[in-house]
UniProtKB/TrEMBL annotation:
Cofactor(s) demanded: [4Fe-4S] cluster
Matching Pfam families: Radical_SAM, TRAM, UPF0004
UniProt keyword annotations, A-Z: 4Fe-4S, Iron, Iron-sulfur, Metal-binding, S-adenosyl-L-methionine
Ranges of residues in domain TRAM: 369-433
Name of protein: tRNA-i(6)A37 modification enzyme MiaB
GO molecular function: 4 iron, 4 sulfur cluster binding; metal ion binding; methylthiotransferase activity
Annotated ranges, domain MTTase N-terminal: 1-115
Family: Belongs to the methylthiotransferase family. MiaB subfamily.
GO BP term, example: tRNA methylthiolation
Top-level taxon: Eukaryota
Domain Radical SAM core: 136-366
Xref: InterPro entries: Elp3/MiaA/NifB-like_rSAM (IPR006638), Methylthiotransferase (IPR005839), Methylthiotransferase_CS (IPR020612), Methylthiotransferase_N (IPR013848), Methylthiotransferase_N_sf (IPR038135), MiaB_methiolase (IPR006463), rSAM (IPR007197), rSAM_horseshoe (IPR023404)
SMART domains: Elp3
Amino acid sequence: MGCQMNLADSERIEGQLQSMGIRPLNPEVDEKSIHPDVVVLNTCSIREHAESKVYSYLGPYAKRKREGEDVAIVVAGCVAQQESEALLRRVPEVDLVMGPQYANRLSDFFEDIANGNQVVATEATHIMEDSSKPRRQSKVCAWVNVIYGCNERCAFCIVPTTRGVEQSRPLESIVQEVESLVEQGYKEVTLLGQNIDAYGRDMVPKKRFSELLNIVGNVPGLKRLRFVTSHPRYMSLSVVDEILNTPSACEYFHIPFQSGSNEILASMGRGHTREKYLRIVDRIRSKIPDAAISADVIVGFPGETEKDFQDTLDLMEEVVFDNINTAAYSPRPNTPAATWTNQIPEEIKKERLQRINVLVKEHAKERRARMLGRTVEVLVEERNVKVPTQVTGRTVHNYLVHFEGDIDKLEGELVNVQIDNCETFYLSGAQVE
Ligand code: SAM
Ligand code: F3S
């Protein structure tokens, strides 16, 4: 469940399970999948809804265990970190509660739980360099962590509590991982960090993210490099220059703005204003006019007036984003904003979310429409699940593209596609030579 960081952790957890001889079950073909020996939930607690899903998933396994079935239950990720021992009190059938900082240490705990002990691993720890091999979902695109944790304290956000303080990975390990990915045939790498611009500030001597971008982007054989998430307070314009200098770096930015109102931004503790955000967008577009920009935004943050919300819509009209992840504010435990008395009623949050989503879609379509008639380069990732005669890939701008093709021949290939149809969140067309 959850963000890309969690997906990357899940791949590492799966890799460790596999090296212990535990194989994944496929619910569609494996009868045993309703009676597994081990269940691992890698959980997300960014919003209350994500958290409550964990308990509904756990329910049936806990029940079977109470009825005598021998199943090891592991809860990993941010809910594990947030709840720690309390999770064992709530669901006593759980064997291991393991925070995100332990995602590459699952195997350390297995003997203990095999001996019938319950284990809680949520102490803050130094994240060791990973010697395990992730079991990656894609053969074409890979996630690579560059900085764990977050030192910001956005008033709504639980991530600093669940993922701990920033820990940058050594540059050499990152480069080695990317080189090995290229050797294995990967074409695209996405560098991951909650605040990626903070890369290297905890190191001695300090390093800069643009330096990392340059070095990784020049790994021979790497076709595409992406990175998330940029923070408007820290994003340096040298990153924009680096993208121009690095052919593999995609013209794509994910920069959450969270709100278009300066009052709300100040109470969120974001450390940037709407003007600063707009200046970043201007600089990007003046240097890379065709760049794609996506973002995250929250509606219904405590104290948000209709005027504040309107400021958010106005900012969107000014920028016209390629995509935005929208969310209604959800109060999270141990975050300042959750205790404030100026909470917004659920109906208003819901109504604002609906209104904002209409604009997100309108802009997404408008942005994609400029591709009509253009020939774009698509990195083919998989079969189109809805139309099996088609394949699916993405452009440098992170637009999904579907076109007729044979996945066995095209997987991992960079293909030129002429676009003849633009929908809200995807494009389609035909392969050209
Ligand atoms: N590190 C990133 C950043 O700089 O914003 C993203 C962190 S979080 C995994 C992803 C997004 O979830 C945030 O950008 C924010 O929009 C949303 N989010 C975080 N806490 C939230 C909350 N309490 N309620 C609603 N949305 C939330
Ligand atoms: Fe959360 Fe703000 Fe960090 S959104 S992950 S505290 S930059």
